[in-house]
Every structure is written in structure tokens, then in C-alpha cells.
């Protein structure tokens, strides 16, 4: 997030939520948005194919079709520019590339965009005006925006929108990705990515690499590595011989599970380090028991870049060990001794190599946590980025982005758009929540959400068993007939091992930059059993 | 600043303070039941009554403004008598089964009855309250035989979660906290965040997941960060005998900067996977398609040996590590360091995209 | 013998209440015109000087109440309390039915004084036919343009007694559950939709046109100096003539009951009178020479309240009546504050026990301490006043209780 969670409750005058079912996936952030809207009078725009809880209280609700985000945002920008609502001073002083972008969106009139998105032109106008004219406007998004073959384009589009109206660099403005995992921000910050070390220092950058080589006392590879989806595809070709999985569950979370399973089987040696025998662990040659958050010390970095303490509360079960200890043991046995007394000692090493974390210490975050960048011990942390329009790269870059249709559009055989997501009561691959007694009792199975119009046409009633199929596979589940989902779209969750939704999703269409799969659109067909 | 006299002592308090706040600043304890600094004020329990010299009525100090020159008594005979009557009235509708109550030792009604020596009620007239306890949700129990109608739960639902699932139904003595049409929570807008449980001063609302596992005075509370979504809520793990038995909220600004104690259903009630019998407790090695238990030395040696062999035979880039958005920063750092420095490849990624 | 004096009922039965023309012909809206020629501070000062005190029960100085509305408030409201929920009270209905324009004019005068453009009349839910009349009157006033830029809307209550309490009434207009708010802030500072709001009773508003026309001194000279003017009273119970009257506030209870009420029905003897509605105190014969003005009534532990006069003859059972009253309060308690919610319930249970002859001296002691605490500890007037019938009957009619107690 460029800005802070608290600003969504207090400072934002208008909140544009796109591709985020906030009250289910980030419930506490959802509460803050609701409070601002219902008690402080902030305005709310929601773009989502599902009429989410936030959509129900929105000033403008845009039920756009999955995969039409760029068209929708271009349409809004078209209105803002043509009605003279753009912040020309901000654009002139702090950005570049405006003319090219403006020329492109000139073609995206609301009337042009309406049939692509399924949203009435007048609503696009209303949303554009509300966003541009409310004062401090902020954009919140989540995987509904990013999990597309055009995920990067989608994100750049909303950045365009923010810069176009100067809604960046002040409290209550900004572009706020609501990150899904407790420490996905931290995993990225720490260089758990194939192209960067900590703090996004590129592995291809000689100076950065030399710094790490010196610190670690070894020479380091200079080529970008493979992203997760590429690893799976390469494994499928037999090119990956060893895979070491720390607390991930690709056999539930990755697209096209049949393909993933085949890939895992082809790998010579698979190590899985986890707290449960996950769907992925079953493919392992060696399984190493690790501990959960309650059994270890460390830090997590949340979606607003706040580094907070994790504290050990209880002993590990049986012989289970802390993840870093296990990795250090393997490293040492492979001839590279890695010895740390405790997690704080590791954090101290991180600080020396990670400029944005340099000023953070366990002592400083004992009470409250600090938001990076925090370059030195005197620095209070950074609640919002790009203060006064100062972008890290100098000028903010507009990008002219054309709409590209989803990889798999409905056709005669697969006439519906299947989209996936999470339920309030479960978490991701269900490893934890399916074993949390109350949560699993409350929501024990997946449901297929389908619009009444669609259901009627297919002769499906609420609670009927249905088959949902895509080109990858078929699942049997209960139908939930609800008008909260747009006609032509169906939805299910991917938490349940009995009905693993990613059996249906495709790994074929990846975003060219981020390599993110198109989870949010698969052509599908539903039949009553 | 405002100057007033409380219990014969001159007290200064900032303009706009209530008498209760002035008392708190001066270290004068005043009992409260409906008061909660994070919620809209109600002024309804009347436990915080004080006497202001020259005024015929007692004032609820939580909502009465501190005014210059007023002379306040917080424990005058009249006030003490009034509090006793109020406690006796509440006792007459409260099912005191403290011996099996989850909130024993952490109950304001119990505390104040003890403090004011209310052993029994003079007002046990009429039929005792008897509300059936039958909300079928798996998260928390609603026992309105222990409810004192402070409405903190209603206000938490309205002001923190903004779910508006519950309100007051009926009037007078028959008033009761209920969903619309007094149904089950599952049929209401309730999202089971348990903010109501967090603010309940008695045993009316208690966690079913923690039931029977330990009272507040038996547990240590360890402040940590929730391990579900990326919001970064802080919560307190309640630990008894080296076992997590519940989750409670720390509501301070420093202890809980993101959520100020507010949690969602997963954070508050989704913790018992920690104690699952399915947890992995020893290393496992697959032999002939079956896992068998192994010692750490055996497993680690095998991993080191095989990785070393593959690196030699197929090269570093034939290997990959999936690190995790679930583990700590320190562990992610170690994982990528291991990948780059030990395996010698940049093939490290995690589920940021998934 | 004391005579009726008509200020609020000056047009009663003399004009057609359905015709604004009649009202105008009788000098209607001249008060508003005069008020609008005055500056706001002068108008408020004039009303303050008249010493007009609220006719709803609490007798707060009307002009003083208006002066609490901040002069620079951008939005403020005028609310007429026409909930008239006190059993035995129907004076506001009489005023409205006989002369609705007088109320509208009074509200508009108040609107000018506090710079409000919007008035609400909160009408008792059991008066649907009066709502129709009021709406017709408002339409006529609008069409004639006499209200200027001041508009009035009628809202109907749902029958809850507590909604006669001004803050519960405001909650009800806002669409919430009828529960009183704590005070301060008083409505004058933060009332309807958190804006400054004046809430006055029908009778208070209906006094205003005459006061503005005739001046503060004229009004202040009528009736009791501390509570000048007249009071509309409604006589019910065992009185020969069950009538409504408007008398100067110097009239005594005895004059009201015997001169206007024609004494006790069927030649029976007087036993008690309850003044001011259900929450009023019971008054024995020995105190009947007390004038009805607010302060004199308070001096004998009673209230003038709404001006309901409920007379009981020698055959009436005081304990039974008090038990019924206790039941009424148990039913009407909103349930917000502890002492009222639980206290009214337990008080009724104890009264039932007494009434059934099962109570002991200890029960009476418990009832007394409970009542004393409720008077001082409850959140709003309902709970504070609910014990008055119990405490005054215990005081003046204790032998009737004693006769019921179990001798153990």
C-alpha cells in the first residue's frame, strides 16, 4: 500500500474498491471502510462482478465482467479528461507520458466501454466524477485486479487513474493493494523473488550483487531466476530436478492442478517443510515438520509495510523445528555454515543489507511496529509514500494501456466465466482453517455461486448438486443461487481439498511481466447432476 | 483546564472532559459497566453515578461534563446505596453460576458485587429470567441469563464492525439483545468477528472454541501478529500449560496499532489448528511410496546429500525453492539466502501471485 | 369564584378550525408578523421576560430554552411535543382540534427566534384523525404563505409513553428506537440529527401569539408570578363534570375540582387527587387549597405536569390503583437504564404482592429504598418520576398499605 490502513477510516473522502471483496478477505480493513462510509460520509465506488458487502453500500456499483478492468478504468479516465476533471498541475509537475495515455483513452468513451465491461455508460461517468471530485480519493485493490493475464496492465491502469487526479502523496489518497497473505509483503521485501535481493535490489545489478557476495562470502548467480509458475512448467518438461518447498501448497493454490501434480511427480527430489501433511507434501520425498506462528519469534510485514513482532507463545509440537533453523541445518550440512542464535540476530543481518529496514530493530518495534522505508534509527517510519508527488523514480510514469480480452472467453461449449476467491470463514488453501474446528463446522464445503437467471435457464435450484467443468477438469459441488453475482459469471472458493477449484483454472495465460496466472477468468460450463 | 473538587480533593482536568475522565486522571476509581472508551457512550448502567453538591439528581459520571467549581462525591452514602440497589437489581436477573462460568475472575458484575458486598438481592420478586441458550453458531455462546443489558455488544457491532447484526428487542425488563426478529445469528448480518465477546463485561457472550480450557487468571497472554491475511492485526494468544487455549484482544494504541483490538472470525476463533492432532511432529522420509518416521539427522543428511548430488549433476538452476508468504521475514531472508548462496540459483519465489 | 381565562383556547368554539380564514379574521398570524419585525435577540428577551414556562411538565423558562440555540447555527429545528401520552391528559388534543393554526403560528414564532426553517410536530400515535386535521391546517398555511420560509411536517408516534420525553421523541423522529439520550448535550445544542433543536409542548407554542401581540408584561401579570399565565386542565375520574378548562395559575385544586368539576360524583366524599398524569403524586384532602402553579405543587411533593387532574372518591382502593400505575410503568419503561428497566419491574412485583395481601414490612422497606434510588438515579424523567405515586401514597395513605400487610 502506498498509504496506511488507518487513513481508509479517517482521511479518505472517496474510496474506489476494485477487485477486492474486502469485508471477507481483509475483514478488519473492510470494517474501517464501512465505518468511513456509513458514519463519516465518505463516498464509495465498488467495481466487482460480485455484489459484495461493500458493493451493497456503495454510492456507485460497477458490476464489470471479469477481465474488463483496463477498459473500465480507461473509460473512467476518458470521462475525467473530457470533463476537465484531471489535475493538470499535478500532471505537469510530477508525471510524464500523459499525452500518449490521453490519446489512447480518448477512444475509450463510456459508450465504447459499456459493452466490454457490462457496465452502463452512465455509471462509469458517475464513478469517474465521484472519484475525481471528492477530495482525497484512494484506490484499494486485491487479487481481483491482479490475477489476470493483464494483471500488470490493470495495476498500471489504476496508477494512471490516481496520477490523473493527483490522488497520491497525501493521507487518504494513494493506490493500496490489499495483500492477501500475512507476510506476503515481507516475503517480497526479503527477496523471496527470483529477480531481487532484499528491498528489491536487483540480482542483475552488479553493485547490489557484490554487496551481498561480500556479506555472504560467496559468489552469487547474476541471472534472474524462474518464477513459481515457470518452475512448475519447467518441471513438467523434466528440467527441474529438485524442489524445496517451505510452507507453500501449490497442489491447492496453483492453476491447473492436474498439470502441477504431473510436474511434481517428474521432479527427482522434493522436500516439503510444513506444519501439516499438505496436498503438496504428499508428493515429497522428505517432509520436515516446522512450527506455526504461535511457536516462534520473528517479524511479519503487513500490507501497509508495517514490520511487527511475532512472539513465541508455546513450544513446538513433538520434534518440529523453526523453519530458519531447518534451512540453516541443511546449509551447514551442504558445506555452507549458517548459524544464528535467534531470529533477532537474523533481523540484525537483514538491516545491514536492506536500506528500507535499516532503522528498524526488535527494540524499536516492541510497542507498535514501524512502516518502511525507515532508513535509520531516528526515522519514525513512513505512513504514506510519494509525499507531495515525489515518486521514487522521479516523475510518475503514465502508461498508455489498451484493453486485451481475457485468454479464455466464453464460447458455445464453455459459455460462462468462472472466477475464484476466498470465503470469510476460510483461508487460502485451507491448511489451517479446515483444521480450525469452528470455522470448518460453520463452512464445511464449497459452493458454486450462480445468478438466478442463469440457474433458471439450466434448471438449477439452490442447493442442487452441479458439475462445473472447464477445459482442465470437472468438479461436483452444491449450487448457491444468488443475485449477488452477475449473469454470465460463476464463482467458487479454492479452500477445499474435496473440491479443489484450481483443478479448473488455467496456467496457460500468464501476465507477461508478473507471470501471474489468470485465476479470475476461466471459460466454464455448469450442468445439473 | 477545569478545576473541580472530587472527594474533597481539588482536581484539574482538560476542558471537555467528563467527570469520569477527571476521576480516572486523579486516580479515583469509579465503577462502570456500560462505559467503553472505544464505543459511543450510553450513560445507561448508572453504576458510575456520582453526587454533585446542590443538584437533586445523581449524575452518570461517564457522560456528565466536568465543570468548574463543582463538588463531586464518588462514594457518598447515597451513591453507595444506589450502586448496591443497581447491583441487586442486576443480580436478580443474573444467573450466578460462577463456578462453571467462563468469565469467573474476569467479570465486572462479580467484581462490583464483591466490592459493594452484595451477597444476595433484595429484589428477587417475580419469575426469574429464563432465556433459552440455543444459538447454534460454532463460535460463541449467547447466554442472556447473564446479560446485564449494558449494550456494549450492540454498540461494538455498530461502531467497530458496522455489521448491525444485533439491537435491543422489546422494552423494559423484557428488553433483550436480539437479531432482527430474534432469530439465530447465522440468519443475521453477523460476521462472527466476536467484537461483542471482546466488550462483554459478564459471561453473557463467551467463546465456544475456548470453553472449558482456562479462565483469564490461569492464562498468560502473548501479544503477536495474526497469521491469516495481510492486514496485520495484533492479537493475544492465551496460553495455559504450554497450550494455546484462546485469543483475546489487546485494545491499546501501541499494542494494536492496526486494529485496536478488532479482529475477524478467523483471528479470534480460528486458532485451534495449532493444537490439531494432524500436526507434523517428526521428519518423514518416503520409501516405496510410503512415508516413514525419521530422525532429524537422517532426514537432514538425506536432504543435504541429494541437493548436493543434483547440483553437481544437473547444475544449480535445476533446483528451485518456494519460500512462503506465511513464514517470518527472518525465515524468508534465510530461504532466499539459502537458495542463492548455498544452492547457487535465483530460482526462489513464493505465492505472491497466487 | 375563580373564572376561566382563555389564552390558548381564545378561539375555541368561536372559529372553524378547518378554516385558516377564520383564524386570520380573529387576528391570527399578527403575532408572527410582529415577531418577524423584531430582532431575534429581542424576541427571545421578550419571551424570557414574559416568564412563560414549559407546559409539558418540566416548566422550564421558554425564552431561556431558546437562548441555548447558538445564534450562528446554520441548521436548527423546532419540534412540537404533541405526544400527549400521560393517561388522563387530552389538553393538547383540545387545543389542536379547536385551533390548529395557533400552534403553527407559535412554532413559526419560535422558528424566527432560533433561525430555524423546519418544524416537526410529533403527534401521538392514537390521534390519527388529528394528524389529518393538522396536515390540512399546514397545507392551508402554506398556501396562504403565512408561514413564509418556515415549513412544518407532522410525524406520528408509535404509542410509546417514553417518546413524550424530548430526547426519546427526537430519537423516534430520527427513526430509531424510542430511548432517551443522556443530557447534556441538551437538544438546544445537539438535538434532532445532532443539530440545535427547540422542543416545546403544544400548549407552550399556543401561548406565543398572544404573548407577542400583548407583550411580556401583560402575560407576566396573569396568574402566579413564578408561573404566570393560564393552564389548561383536564378533569377525569370521580368528578361530577369531566371537563377541560383553562384557568389562571392562581387557581387552587379545590377550586378546580369543586367550582369547575362540580365536586365529587354521586355525592360521595373526596379521597385523593393525582395531578399531572400517571407519574404525578397523590394529594390528600388536607392539601387541596394549594394553587396549581408549578412551584406550589412542587412544594407539596406533587407536580403540575401536564395538567391532568384525576380525582378519586372514597370508594377507591389506593393500593390497587398504585399497583396498576406500577404496571403501567413496567410496561412503558424503555429498558435503557438499569434502575428503571429493572426497578419498574420489581416495583410492580412488590406492589402486586402488597395488593394481594402477601407482603411484609420488609417488602415495603425494599419498595421504599428502590423508589428513592430510582428518583435520583434513573436516566430520564420516566424513571425518575415513576416512583412518585408509590412514595406519595406511602406517605399520605399508609394505613391502606398497612391493612394489606401480612402480620408476621
Automatic annotation (TrEMBL), chain A:
Task: Cite the EC number.
Answer: 1.17.99.7
For this chain, one GO molecular function annotation is: iron-sulfur cluster binding
Whether Metal-binding counts among this entry's keywords is yes
Q: A single Pfam family, by name?
A: Molydop_binding
GO BP annotations, alphabetical order: formate metabolic process; respiratory electron transport chain
Is Secreted found in the keyword set?
no
Q: Which PANTHER family match?
A: FORMATE DEHYDROGENASE H (PTHR43105:SF14), RESPIRATORY NITRATE REDUCTASE (PTHR43105)
What is the name attached to this protein's record? Formate dehydrogenase H
Q: Which organism is it from?
A: Sporotomaculum syntrophicum
Gene giving rise to this polypeptide: fdhF_1
From TrEMBL, chain B:
Q: Does the keyword Oxidoreductase apply?
A: yes
Q: Where is the 2Fe-2S ferredoxin-type domain?
A: 1-78
Limits of the 4Fe-4S His(Cys)3-ligated-type domain? 78-117
| The keyword Membrane is assigned to this record | yes
Which cofactor does the UniProt annotation name? Answer: [4Fe-4S] cluster; [2Fe-2S] cluster
- Looking at the record, the residues that make up the 4Fe-4S ferredoxin-type domain are 138-171, 179-210
Q: Which GO-annotated molecular functions does the record name?
A: 2 iron, 2 sulfur cluster binding; 4 iron, 4 sulfur cluster binding; formate dehydrogenase (NAD+) activity; metal ion binding; NADH dehydrogenase (ubiquinone) activity; NADH dehydrogenase activity
List UniProt keywords, sorted A-Z: 2Fe-2S, 4Fe-4S, Iron, Iron-sulfur, Membrane, Metal-binding, NAD, Oxidoreductase, Repeat, Translocase
**What's the Enzyme Commission number for this chain?**
1.17.1.9
The segment(s) forming the 4Fe-4S Mo/W bis-MGD-type domain are 219-278
Show the SMART domains listed in the entry: Molybdop_Fe4S4 (SM00926), NADH-G_4Fe-4S_3 (SM00929)
Gene Ontology terms, cellular component aspect? membrane
UniProt-annotated location(s)? Membrane
Q: Which SUPFAM superfamilies does this entry report, sorted A to Z?
A: 2Fe-2S ferredoxin-like (SSF54292), 4Fe-4S ferredoxins (SSF54862), Formate dehydrogenase/DMSO reductase, domains 1-3 (SSF53706)
What is an annotated GO biological process for this record, any one?
A: ATP synthesis coupled electron transport
UniProt xrefs under InterPro entries:
2Fe-2S_ferredoxin-like_sf, 2Fe-2S_ferredoxin-type, 4Fe4S_Fe-S-bd, 4Fe4S_Fe_S_CS, Mopterin_OxRdtase, Mopterin_OxRdtase_4Fe-4S_dom, MopterinOxRdtase_cofactor_BS, NADH_UbQ_OxRdtase_75kDa_su_CS
EC top class, in one word? Answer: oxidoreductase
Question: What is the similarity comment for this entry?
Answer: Belongs to the complex I 75 kDa subunit family.
Return the protein name: Formate dehydrogenase
Organism the protein comes from: Sporotomaculum syntrophicum
From TrEMBL, chain C:
Extract the InterPro entries matched here. Answer: NADH-UbQ_OxRdtase_51kDa_CS, Nuo51_FMN-bd, Nuo51_FMN-bd_sf, Nuop51_4Fe4S-bd, Nuop51_4Fe4S-bd_sf
Q: Which EC numbers characterise this protein's activity in its record?
A: 1.12.1.3
Q: Which domain of life is it from?
A: Bacteria
Record has Phosphoprotein as a keyword: no
**Family annotation (Pfam families):** Complex1_51K (PF01512), NADH_4Fe-4S (PF10589)
Q: Where is the NADH-ubiquinone oxidoreductase 51kDa subunit iron-sulphur binding domain?
A: 319-364
Per UniProt, the keywords (alphabetical) are: 4Fe-4S, Iron, Iron-sulfur, Metal-binding, Oxidoreductase
MF term (GO), any: FMN binding
Hey, which family's this protein in? Belongs to the complex I 51 kDa subunit family.
Which PANTHER family does this entry report, sorted A to Z? NADH-QUINONE OXIDOREDUCTASE SUBUNIT F (PTHR43578)
NCBIfam families recorded for this chain? PRK13596.1
Protein name in the entry: NADP-reducing hydrogenase subunit HndC
Organism annotation = Sporotomaculum syntrophicum
Amino acid at each position: 500500500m502506498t498509504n496506511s490502513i488507518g487513513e481508509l477510516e479517517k482521511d479518505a473522502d472517496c474510496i474506489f474498491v476494485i477487485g477486492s471483496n474486502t469485508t471477507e478477505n481483509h475483514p478488519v480493513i473492510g470494517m474501517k471502510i464501512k465505518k468511513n462510509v456509513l458514519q463519516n460520509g465518505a463516498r464509495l465506488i465498488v467495481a466487482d462482478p460480485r455484489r459484495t458487502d461493500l458493493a451493497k453500500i456503495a454510492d456507485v456499483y460497477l458490476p464489470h465482467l471479469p477481465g474488463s478492468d483496463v477498459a473500465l478504468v480507461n473509460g473512467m479516465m476518458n470521462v475525467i479528461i473530457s470533463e476537465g476533471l484531471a489535475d493538470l498541475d499535478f500532471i505537469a509537475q510530477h508525471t510524464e507520458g500523459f499525452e500518449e495515455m490521453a490519446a489512447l483513452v480518448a477512444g475509450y468513451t463510456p459508450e465504447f466501454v459499456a459493452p466490454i465491461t457490462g457496465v452502463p455508460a452512465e455509471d462509469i461517468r458517475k464513478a469517474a466524477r465521484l472519484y475525481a471530485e471528492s477530495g482525497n480519493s484512494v484506490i484499494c485493490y486485491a487479487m481481483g485486479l491482479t490475477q489476470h493475464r493483464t494483471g500488470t496492465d490493470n495495476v498500471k491502469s489504476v496508477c494512471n487513474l490516481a496520477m490523473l487526479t493527483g490522488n497520491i502523496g497525501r493521507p487518504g489518497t494513494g493506490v493500496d493493494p490489499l495483500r492477501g497473505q500475512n507476510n506476503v509483503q515481507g516475503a517480497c521485501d526479503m527477496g523471496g523473488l527470483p529477480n531481487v535481493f532484499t528491498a528489491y535490489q536487483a540480482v542483475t545489478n552488479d553493485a547490489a550483487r557484490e554487496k551481498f557476495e561480500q556479506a555472504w562470502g560467496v559468489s552469487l548467480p547474476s541471472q534472474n531466476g524462474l518464477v513459481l509458475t515457470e518452475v512448475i512448467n519447467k518441471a513438467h518438461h523434466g528440467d527441474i530436478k529438485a524442489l524445496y518447498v517451505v510452507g507453500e501448497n501449490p497442489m491447492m493454490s496453483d492453476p491447473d492442478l492436474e498439470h502441477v501434480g504431473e510436474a511434481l511427480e517428474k521432479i527427482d527430489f522434493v522436500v516439503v517443510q510444513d506444519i501439516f501433511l499438505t496436498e503438496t507434501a504428499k508428493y515429497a520425498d522428505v517432509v520436515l515438520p516446522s512450527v506455526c506462528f504461535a511457536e516462534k519469534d520473528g517479524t511479519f510485514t503487513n500490507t501497509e509495510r508495517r514490520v511487527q513482532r511475532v512472539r513465541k507463545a508455546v513450544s513446538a509440537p513433538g520434534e518440529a523445528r523453526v523453519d530458519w533453523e531447518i534451512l540453516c541445518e541443511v546449509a551447514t550440512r551442504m558445506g555452507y555454515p549458517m548459524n544464528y542464535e535467534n531470529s533477532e540476530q537474523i533481523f540484525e543481518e537483514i538491516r545491514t543489507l536492506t536500506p528500507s529496514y535499516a532503522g528498524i530493530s526488535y527494540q524499536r518495534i516492541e510497542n507498535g511496529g514501524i512502516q518502511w522505508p525507515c532508513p535509520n534509527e531516528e526515522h519514525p517510519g513512513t505512513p504514506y509514500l510519494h509525499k507531495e508527488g515525489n515518486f521514487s523514480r522521479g516523475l510518475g510514469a503514465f502508461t498508455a494501456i489498451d484493453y486485451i480480452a481475457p485468454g479464455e472467453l466464453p464460447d458455445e461449449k464453455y459459455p460462462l466465466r468462472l472466477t475464484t476467491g476466498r470465503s470469510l470463514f476460510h483461508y487460502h488453501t485451507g491448511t489451517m482453517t479446515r483444521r480450525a474446528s469452528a470455522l470448518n463446522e460453520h463452512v464445511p464445503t464449497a459452493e458454486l455461486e450462480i445468478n438466478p437467471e442463469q440457474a433458471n435457464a439450466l434448471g438449477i435450484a439452490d442447493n442442487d448438486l452441479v458439475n462445473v467443468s472447464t477445459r482442465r477438469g470437472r468438479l461436483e459441488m452444491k449450487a448457491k443461487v444468488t443475485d449477488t453475482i452477475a449473469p454470465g459469471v460463476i464463482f467458487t472458493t479454492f479452500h477445499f481439498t474435496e473440491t479443489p477449484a484450481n483443478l479448473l483454472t488455467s496456467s496457460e495465460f500468464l501476465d507477461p511481466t508478473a507471470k501471474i496466472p489468470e485465476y479470475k477468468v476461466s471459460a466454464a460450463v455448469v450442468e445439473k447432476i | 483546564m477545569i478545576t473541580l473538587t472530587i472527594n474533597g480533593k481539588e482536581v484539574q482536568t482538560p476542558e471537555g472532559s467528563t467527570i469520569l475522565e477527571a476521576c480516572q486522571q486523579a486516580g479515583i476509581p469509579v465503577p462502570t459497566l456500560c462505559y467503553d472508551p472505544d464505543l459511543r457512550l450510553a450513560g445507561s448502567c448508572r453504576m458510575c453515578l456520582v453526587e454533585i453538591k446542590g443538584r437533586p439528581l445523581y449524575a452518570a459520571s461517564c457522560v456528565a461534563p466536568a465543570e468548574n467549581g463543582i463538588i463531586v462525591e464518588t462514594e457518598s452514602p447515597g451513591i453507595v446505596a444506589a450502586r448496591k440497589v443497581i447491583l441487586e437489581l442486576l443480580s436478580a436477573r443474573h444467573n450466578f453460576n460462577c463456578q462453571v462460568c467462563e468469565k469467573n475472575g474476569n467479570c465486572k458484575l462479580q467484581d462490583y458485587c464483591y466490592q459493594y458486598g452484595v451477597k444476595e438481592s433484595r429484589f428477587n420478586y417475580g419469575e426469574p429470567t429464563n432465556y433459552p441458550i440455543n444459538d447454534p453458531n460454532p463460535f460463541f455462546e449467547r447466554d442472556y441469563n447473564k446479560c446485564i443489558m449494558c449494550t456494549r455488544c450492540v454498540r461494538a457491532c455498530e461502531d467497530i464492525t458496522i455489521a448491525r447484526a444485533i439491537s435491543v428487542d422489546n422494552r423494559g425488563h423484557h428488553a433483550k439483545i436480539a437479531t432482527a426478529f430474534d432469530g439465530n445469528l447465522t440468519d443475521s448480518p453477523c460476521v462472527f468477528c466476536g467484537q461483542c465477546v471482546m466488550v462483554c463485561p459478564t459471561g453473557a457472550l463467551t467463546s465456544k472454541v475456548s470453553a472449558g480450557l482456562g479462565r483469564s487468571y490461569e492464562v498468560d497472554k502473548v501479544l503477536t501478529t495474526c497469521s491469516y491475511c495481510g492486514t496485520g492485526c495484533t492479537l493475544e494468544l492465551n496460553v495455559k500449560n504450554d497450550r494455546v487455549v484462546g485469543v483475546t484482544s489487546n485494545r491499546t494504541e501501541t499494542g494494536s496499532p492496526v486494529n485496536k483490538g478488532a479482529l475477524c472470525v478467523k483471528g479470534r476463533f480460528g486458532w485451534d489448528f495449532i493444537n490439531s492432532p494432524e500436526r507434523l511432529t517428526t521428519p518423514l522420509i518416503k520409501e516405496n511410496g510410503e512415508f516413514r518416521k525419521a530422525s532429524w539427522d537422517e532426514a537432514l543428511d538425506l536432504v543435504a546429500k541429494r541437493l548436493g548430488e543434483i547440483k553437481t549433476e544437473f547444475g544449480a538452476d535445476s533446483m528451485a525453492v518456494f519460500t512462503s508468504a506465511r513464514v517470518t521475514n527472518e525465515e524468508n531472508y534465510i530461504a532466499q539466502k539459502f537458495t542463492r548462496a548455498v544452492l547457487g540459483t535465483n530460482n526462489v519465489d513464493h505465492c505472491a501471485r497466487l | 369564584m375563580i373564572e376561566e381565562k382563555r389564552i390558548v383556547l381564545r378561539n375555541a368554539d368561536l372559529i372553524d378550525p378547518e378554516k385558516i380564514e377564520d383564524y386570520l379574521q380573529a387576528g391570527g398570524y399578527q403575532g408572527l408578523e410582529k415577531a418577524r419585525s423584531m430582532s431575534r435577540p429581542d424576541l427571545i428577551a421578550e419571551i424570557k421576560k414574559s416568564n412563560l414556562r414549559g407546559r409539558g411538565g418540566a416548566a422550564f423558562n421558554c425564552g431561556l430554552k431558546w437562548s441555548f440555540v447558538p445564534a450562528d447555527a446554520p441548521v436548527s429545528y423546532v419540534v412540537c411535543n404533541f405526544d400527549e401520552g400521560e393517561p388522563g391528559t387530552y389538553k393538547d388534543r383540545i387545543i389542536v382540534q379547536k385551533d390548529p393554526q395557533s400552534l403553527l403560528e407559535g412554532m413559526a414564532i419560535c422558528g424566527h427566534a432560533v433561525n430555524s426553517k423546519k418544524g416537526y410536530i410529533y403527534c401521538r400515535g392514537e390521534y390519527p384523525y388529528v394528524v389529518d386535521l393538522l396536515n390540512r391546517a399546514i397545507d392551508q398555511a402554506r398556501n396562504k404563505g403565512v408561514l413564509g420560509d418556515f415549513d412544518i411536517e407532522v410525524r406520528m408516534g408509535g404509542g410509546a409513553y417514553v417518546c413524550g420525553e424530548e430526547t426519546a421523541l427526537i430519537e423516534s423522529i430520527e427513526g430509531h428506537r424510542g430511548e432517551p439520550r443522556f443530557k447534556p448535550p441538551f437538544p438546544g445544542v445537539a438535538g434532532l440529527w445532532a443539530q440545535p433543536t427547540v422542543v416545546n409542548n403544544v400548549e407552550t407554542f399556543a401561548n406565543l401569539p398572544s404573548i407577542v401581540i400583548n407583550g411580556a408584561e401583560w402575560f407576566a401579570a396573569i396568574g402566579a408570578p413564578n408561573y404566570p399565565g393560564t393552564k389548561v386542565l383536564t378533569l377525569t375520574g370521580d368528578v361530577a363534570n369531566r371537563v377541560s378548562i383553562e384557568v389562571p395559575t392562581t387557581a387552587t385544586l379545590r377550586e378546580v375540582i369543586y367550582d369547575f368539576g362540580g365536586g365529587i360524583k354521586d355525592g360521595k366524599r373526596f379521597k385523593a387527587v393525582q395531578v399531572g398524569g400517571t407519574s404525578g403524586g397523590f394529594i390528600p384532602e388536607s392539601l387541596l387549597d394549594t394553587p396549581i402553579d408549578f412551584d406550589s405543587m412542587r412544594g407539596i411533593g406533587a407536580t403540575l405536569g401536564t395538567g391532568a387532574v384525576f380525582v378519586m372518591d372514597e370508594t377507591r382502593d389506593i393500593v390497587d390503583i398504585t399497583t396498576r400505575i406500577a404496571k403501567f410503568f413496567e410496561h412503558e419503561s424503555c429498558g435503557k437504564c438499569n434502575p428503571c428497566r429493572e426497578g419498574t419491574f420489581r416495583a410492580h412485583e412488590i406492589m402486586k404482592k402488597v395488593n394481594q395481601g402477601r407482603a411484609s414490612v420488609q417488602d415495603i422497606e425494599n419498595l421504599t429504598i428502590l423508589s428513592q434510588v430510582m428518583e435520583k438515579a434513573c436516566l430520564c424523567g420516566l424513571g425518575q418520576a415513576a416512583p412518585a405515586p408509590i412514595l406519595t401514597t406511602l406517605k399520605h395513605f399508609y394505613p391502606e398499605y398497612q391493612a394489606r400487610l401480612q402480620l408476621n
